[in-house]
Amino acid sequence: xxxxxxxxxxxxxxxxxxxxxxxxxxxxxxxxxxxxxxxxxxxxxxxxxxxxxxxxxxxxxxxxxxxxxxxxxxxxxxxxxxxxxxxxxxxxxxxxxxxxxxxxxxxxxxxxxxxxxxxxxxxxxxxxxxxxxxxxxxxxxxxxxxxxxxxxxxxxxxxxxxxxxxxxxxxxxxxxxxxxxxxxxxxxxxxxxxxxxxxxxxxxxxxxxxxxxxxxxxxxxxxxxxxxxxxxxxxxxxxxxxxxxxxxxxxxxxxxxxxxxxxxxxxxxxxxxxxxxxxxxxxxxxxxxxxxxxxxxxxxxxxxxxxxxxxxxxxxxxxxxxxxxxxxxxxxxxxxxxxxxxxxxxxxxxxxxxxxxxxxxxxxxxxxxxxxxxxxxxxxxxxxxxxxxxxxxxxxxxxxxxxxxxxxxxxxxxxxxxxxxxxxxxxxxxxxxxxxxxxxxxxxxxxxxxxxxxxxxxxxxxxxxxxxxxxxxxx
Length: 475
Hints:
475 residues, five-stranded parallel beta sheet, 14 helices
């Protein structure tokens, strides 16, 4: 929140949040409603709220319904809900008349900014430099640098101001960053070569549209939206587009009710309880189903291609699944040569193009960037990664009486649903229930019709009673 007074650096807070993306913004909003109150502060190095990268295309649609906002699935009565946002803008009736269940990214971002601008305890323009444990005081010490006026930037000649705050618990929500495959990183870092990540598509769109030939790499929702936008922007018969992906098909995302139960808390709990070697195994097909393309977008791509074929012939657009980029290099000063390999055929070829858009997704930022000072206390798994408990706590040495929660728990530990916005409110409420040791937010015991393991998910936990096999296995 712009202009929020800085916390008293001599008192210990209940919770300090590092990063203010949608995850920690949700946590801050729900923390604001905990009965009895929590003393919190959240820090973000950017001068204001903004989702990383923004939408690849202006009219892109979110993947989740509006009910899966920052708070509603944990607290429908929260003053920070999407419906409250609509009411504050006198837009409830137009929204109702539009009968829209899924909302545009731009509208979701406007809603998040509305929360960030009004919610107390948010400090933008503050970069967290490190976290360490003080065993004498049994508190975390969080060092930060104020990089500029909140909501703005540092004036010329103004020095960055260091600070320190203490807290009993920390929530790390540093989010993700654009992922660029290794073969393309040198080109993406070269200003004269138009190789851009989808996060920067809108900023480079005019240059890309003017290019003679464009290649889109990646078949997720962003790749489809960008390919469709480029296709509609190119002259008929001279499209000059190539869309490649290493997945087997340009496949639709799962939309059925039972299929979406893989994105529920029930599946998250089930997945976290699996043995580590099972979780680390090949990505299950259920994860791939949720990383596909919205069926409406796929239909729009096909419709546009079909319309362009009506005069006779085929549009100059090639779509090739099952292909990976082995290596890449420059041709002359501005063109790119991609060395491709077909995964199933084992064949190889070269593709020369004038521009490349990388719809290759995002990767979670490493926790070590801010938690180096806690390294001696971290407990690690067989691969040397920090262990994360079911309740999103980092597993620390027992001598550490404080708690570090991790908002960026990924598919490795908690399954496919935890990285999407659909579980944001539930995850935040789970953290607050764990932090307070009580239940300020009543969460459902069961959230899916599917039983992911051989247990009855709705059975009460009765000491000494085995719930695992008898109800589901018959001989």
